[in-house]
Amino acid sequence: MSANISAAISCPSAGASNYGTFANAREARLAIRRGEWDSHTSGLAPGYAQGNLAILPEALATDFLRFCQRNPKPCPLLAVSEPGDPMLPTLGEDVDIRTDIPRYRIWKHGELAAEVSDIRDFWRDDLVSFVLGCSFSFEHALIEGGIELRHVSQGKNVAMYRTNIQTVPAGPFHGPMVVSMRPMTAANAIRAVQITARVPAVHGAPVHLGDPAQIGIADINRPDFGDAVEILPGEMPVFWACGVTPQAVVMAMAPEFCITHAPGYMLITDVRNSDLSLA
Amino acid sequence: MSANISAAISCPSAGASNYGTFANAREARLAIRRGEWDSHTSGLAPGYAQGNLAILPEALATDFLRFCQRNPKPCPLLAVSEPGDPMLPTLGEDVDIRTDIPRYRIWKHGELAAEVSDIRDFWRDDLVSFVLGCSFSFEHALIEGGIELRHVSQGKNVAMYRTNIQTVPAGPFHGPMVVSMRPMTAANAIRAVQITARVPAVHGAPVHLGDPAQIGIADINRPDFGDAVEILPGEMPVFWACGVTPQAVVMAMAPEFCITHAPGYMLITDVRNSDLSLA
């Protein structure tokens, strides 16, 4: 199960290539829909927010919606579809969730059943799509703010950890919060709180900084997901709620049917990162 | 000299009594002007910003103004008067800096020469008044935000430290930044960054958090000014730039003539604390 969760993790690295391949989000989505783009989406349409995808049967959707509402930091909902409707009009012009992501994963009873580039054959009238904000948007803001992110500089995945912070349960959905960690100086940590507090739709302000043991992390050098990253003298670890939390929560309950994006293959929305900022 | 600086420190404790004695700032100032109030000003007109005072001869004023402009975190300027003009119209209706503070200190060559309740007899045509924001305003915001401030709960003065953070010099004004310290949990530290970042006119976001040695504080239990306060397990020290910095800088250069408020006896302005908030 843990391997499945790990395989399902989400956000692309802010530092990957592809940068600026498409002028805007709609062009990128149309190329993806035509099958002309089968790679990760990092940097593909700069400035536009990308989203994590979870598609669940309607029977589970209300509980999952309540779960997201109760846990906005790990589960920042950008959009929820009508049952059976593949369109997500609030995220952009003509967004069809069945075709507009380059790679999907089909899950049956918690096991990976298929990886596909189009889910029209798997579509059902009871499916509800959830699109959640991605830390890529806030990492972009941090880098624009002059804060070096080591995992980005080193081309690594961000380090992620299970914590002893419990999410607020809803129906069958429950479990610990997963956090991502970025090491930085205290002065940068203070700036990073200010920068990310302005983007609650992409995880918002950190949930912790300093001593990892206080949130149940026994060994900072052994992340549960992603890659370990060095913490230099004079730096402190800063922890943000992570979008892996809802994925881990969904996978842990092994729903009979579920579709997610493949890791790094995100939905590119027409929402600008700058529009997600409160100020 | 250090004793003089210590005697000149400024802000009242946010927790002191007097709370709500006057309905608004103007009423409080008029009572002070009539000599009907000879005590500290903490809580006197709730919701209104109070300010630290430094009055310098014009020959030094330009350099001090540049010093404040270059060091906005320790020296947040609320107002500067015209030379020789005792009125501060931007801070409220009919604010006369010669009479509207309950107690002043007259300094000659860095030595305390007199403590008076009215400076009309000391007024000169070349004097320039500087009013600087006071951490009382942001402490109020922190307490409203549900963050306990231990020094306030315990009726102590806040702990203050000289650091190895150098201010940006201007003319004869130079010296290390003084910081105030408030211990809190990491979660509260994150909230406190957000709350105080919104009030740059009263010191703004912290300048440091965590390891005191990183900013040159050898012993957190021995503050240079104010009272030591316990840091409980699971808490970290959070450091803000402190209004004692400009006072220490002015005192250290021992100007031939200078007037300040007496510690805790502040100027009550018509500016609402809420108006100092960016958002």
Automatic annotation (TrEMBL), chains A, B:
<dbReference type="InterPro" id="IPR016938">
    <property type="entry name" value="UPF0317"/>
</dbReference>
<keyword id="KW-0456">Lyase</keyword>
<dbReference type="InterPro" id="IPR009906">
    <property type="entry name" value="D-Glu_cyclase"/>
</dbReference>
<dbReference type="InterPro" id="IPR038021">
    <property type="entry name" value="Putative_hydro-lyase"/>
</dbReference>
<comment type="similarity">
    <text>Belongs to the D-glutamate cyclase family.</text>
</comment>
<protein>
    <recommendedName>
        <fullName>Putative hydro-lyase ABCS64_02010</fullName>
        <ecNumber>4.2.1.-</ecNumber>
    </recommendedName>
</protein>
<dbReference type="Pfam" id="PF07286">
    <property type="entry name" value="D-Glu_cyclase"/>
</dbReference>
